[in-house]
Design goal:
By secondary structure, the protein is α/β, with parallel strands linked by helices. It folds into two domains: 4-247, Peroxisomal Thiolase, Chain A, domain 1 (3-Layer(aba) Sandwich); 258-409, 3-Layer(aba) Sandwich (Peroxisomal Thiolase, Chain A, domain 1), CATH 3.40.47.10. The protein has 13 helices and 15 strands. The strands form three sheets. An eleven-stranded mixed β-sheet has the order 5-4-6-7-1-8-15-14-9-10-12, sandwiched between helices. A two-stranded antiparallel sheet has the order 2-3. The chain has a two-stranded antiparallel ribbon with strand order 11-13. The model has no long low-confidence stretch (mean pLDDT 98).
Length: 413
């Protein structure tokens, strides 16, 4: 089996349009959640979200092409451009049939769908854009990345709600591990902050309604949480087979060593009781990694700030790790940027790799009164924490009962 390493990362989030700015913001405990500015929320109950700021994709990419792509793909291209530059890889020097693209998106082109549907209703079928379908379908994240860079290896998009990004990375890991590709461009992208989507999530009572204090609204694992905060963003990772990366002299952020994927088979939105599916997902990732449970140092939680997810995820961690759970270091990235849905697992994978590289774990915001289920768990709050991380896992749990866990390791020969 091939070993798989990460050689490049790119990210765009509500707290930064590149890796450095985003990571600095996370370490400073900066929130990217605010009143929605993209559209009028006068008739909406929820008026807050995590929006990407000062984003002008036409300055980096051909404006004509940008007009034919949804914002979800714009974000994906932006993050991928940074990741490719970071990896310092010239695809033209290698067999591009061995370079794949697997990128997750839970919803895809919502901006396009809403705009064109409005045209359809108000102005008739003839006014609908001929680009509606290719702009709307979620697979255009991976599809257009492959087109832009001319990559011809395995190419598809994973769609598993909030676990989409993590599933994409897991599939990319397996593709290289089993010899189907030498390099895979992977990650997740989502642009769900639209009037229609906001209404849908709000009406199912999934979103926080703390409109007057947006930066305090995302309260992962806190007893006073009242729902998640919609957010947009993207993250891309360049995964390579170890010997391929060595031959070209690539720098290495870390190694991905395990991937767990399970289903709850329980409910369309609620997780399985006590996080049974999440527990098995973590267990599978650790088993594939070939390490002991007590070798895991750090868990980047899914931590959505919703009633059942936070409670059951905490229970799953305690049930799996037993006494070692008290020695784990945990945090919740969504406490600062909200929930980027299909991009969340990819953004949090980047967080784990940067934590391993720098030996520091960012704080969890707004965790003032932890849930009873969190008793004995060590969540980083306040200031970032310095720590040496040898093994870490990251959880992503999606509507429909989709669970995905990625296990990363500090790279060593």
């Amino acid at each position: 089996m091939n070993r798989v390493v990460i050689t490049g990362i790119g990210v765009i989030t509500p707290v930064g349009n590149d890796v450095k700015t985003t990571w600095d913001s996370f370490l400073k405990g900066k929130s990217g959640i605010d009143t929605i500015r993209a559209f009028d929320t006068s008739n909406h109950t929820v008026k807050i979200a995590g929006e990407v700021k000062d984003f002008e994709p036409e300055k980096k990419f051909d404006p004509k092409i940008i007009k034919r792509l949804d914002r979800c793909v714009h974000l994906c291209l932006w993050a991928t451009s940074e990741a490719v530059a970071d990896a310092q890889i010239d695809f033209n020097k290698y067999d591009r049939t061995q370079i794949g693209v697997i990128i997750g998106s839970g919803i895809g082109g919502l901006h396009t769908w809403e705009r064109e549907h409005t045209k359809f209703i108000e102005r008739g079928p003839a006014r609908v854009s001929p680009f509606l379908i290719p702009m709307m379908i979620p697979d255009m994240t991976s599809g257009y990345v492959a087109i832009h860079w001319g990559l011809k290896g395995p190419n598809y998009t994973t769609i598993s709600a909030c676990a989409s990004g993590a599933h994409a990375i897991g599939d990319a890991f397996r593709a290289i591990k089993y010899g189907d590709a030498n390099v895979v461009v992977t990650g997740g992208s989502e642009a769900p902050v639209t009037p229609f989507a906001l209404a849908g999530f709000s009406n199912m009572r999934a979103l926080s309604r703390r409109n007057d204090e947006p930066q305090k609204a995302s309260r992962s694992f806190d007893v006073n949480r009242d729902g998640f905060i919609m957010a947009e963003g993207a993250a891309t990772l360049i995964l390579e087979e170890l010997e391929f990366a060595r031959k070209r002299g690539a720098k290495i952020y870390g190694e991905i060593v395990g991937f767990g994927a399970t289903g709850d088979g329980h409910h369309i939105t609620a997780p399985a009781p006590e996080g049974e599916g999440a527990r098995r997902s973590m267990e599978r990732a650790i088993k594939e990694a070939g390490c002991r449970k007590d070798e895991i140092n750090y868990v980047n939680t899914h931590g959505t700030s919703t009633e059942l997810n936070d409670k059951f995820e905490a229970m799953a961690i305690k049930n799996l790790f037993g006494d070692h759970a008290k020695k784990l270091i945990l945090n919740a990235t969504k406490s600062m940027i909200g929930h980027t849905l299909g991009a969340a697992g990819a953004i949090e994978a980047v967080v784990v790799l940067l934590s391993i590289r720098d030996g520091v774990v960012h704080p969890t915001l707004n965790l003032k009164e932890p849930l009873p289920e969190c008793n004995g768990l060590d969540f980083v709050t306040g200031d970032p924490r310095k720590v040496t991380i040898d093994y870490a896992i990251s959880n992503s749990l999606g509507f429909g009962g989709h669970n995905a866990t990625l296990c990363f390791k500090r790279f060593s020969d």
